[in-house]
Amino acid sequence: MVEEVMELLRCEPGRTYVDGTLGGGGHAEEILKRTAPDGILIGLDWDQEAIQIAKERLKPFGNRAKLVRENFTHLPEVLKSLGIDGVDGILLDLGLSSIQLESHSRGFRFRGEAPLDMRMDDRSPLTAADLLRTLSLQELEDILRVYGEERWASRIARAIVTEREKRPVQTTQTLSKIVYRTIPKRFQSKRIDPATRTFQALRIKVNEELENLKKILDLSWKVLKKGGRLCILSFHSLEDRIVKEGFRELERKGEMRLLTKKPLRPSEEEQMNNPRSRSAKLRGAERI
Ligand SMILES: C[S@@+](CC[C@H](N)C(=O)[O-])C[C@H]1O[C@@H](n2cnc3c(N)ncnc32)[C@H](O)[C@@H]1O
What we know:
There is one protein chain. The protein is an alpha/beta fold. The chain folds into two domains: about 180 residues, Rossmann fold, CATH 3.40.50.150; about 80 residues, Putative methyltransferase TM0872, insert domain (DNA polymerase, domain 1, Orthogonal Bundle). It is about 45% helix and about 15% strand. The chain has a seven-stranded mixed β-sheet, with helices on both faces. Strand 2, helix 3 and strand 3 form a beta-alpha-beta unit. Helix 7 crosses helix 10, helix 8 crosses helix 9 and helix 11 packs parallel to helix 12.
């Protein structure tokens, strides 16, 4: 949804924008092109690999691109360290990057065999395997139910606990096999891998994704200049609900004005060309 995002962000030369979820730098590159010759882009990602790839891609823009390996919840501190008072736009494109999703070693994919890591930031202390080893039955069930919206949460949690009493649940294959044999066959969709929800739940927990989203909604509007815009692309209903409610709250307090009463969705053509975009929802708000 690059075009829709750029329009909503209202990129203009001479202004300063933040991409809080830099990834491979696709959106950042577009922002830099549209704000030439003197716009500034501050790009944050907590994943070292993303920073390296984006650095290479954004080299042609020189000093106009300032990339920092940091959690986006530390945005105010990052801006302070760069001597920047306020920004004209902030973009968050939530979820996994294709670099992370396609990595064969980081444990985000349920196809193939890899250690159950799932940390986007490898400096953070707990991997998915650590959680599977240490959480109680009830905690596992809650995570699967709340973050995965998994109707078989209770059964899967019990199956994990039974398995870990015999051997550690440490790899993607071990975990997906537990899910495949636990969900009754007649309830296993052919279209969506039955392990999807379990993997999603663990990933959200490992990376504290929803807590981080709530935090950035609480603080990002404070670093926007008047008329500055916050645009958020989300990929599942849990995230979108938090964005919708966060924006409403900011509107109620008189801090922001909604730019999208309903979320913008990718065109049919984009959904055809890029199946991953199908669940994307884009919302925007402007600082008053
Ligand atoms: C969907 S990708 C962004 C793709 C990017 N828009 C592009 O055009 O290539 C999301 C990125 O956000 C990063 N990310 C997620 N949560 C983060 C957080 N709390 N702080 C910093 N980066 C985060 C992930 O590591 C990932 O690289």
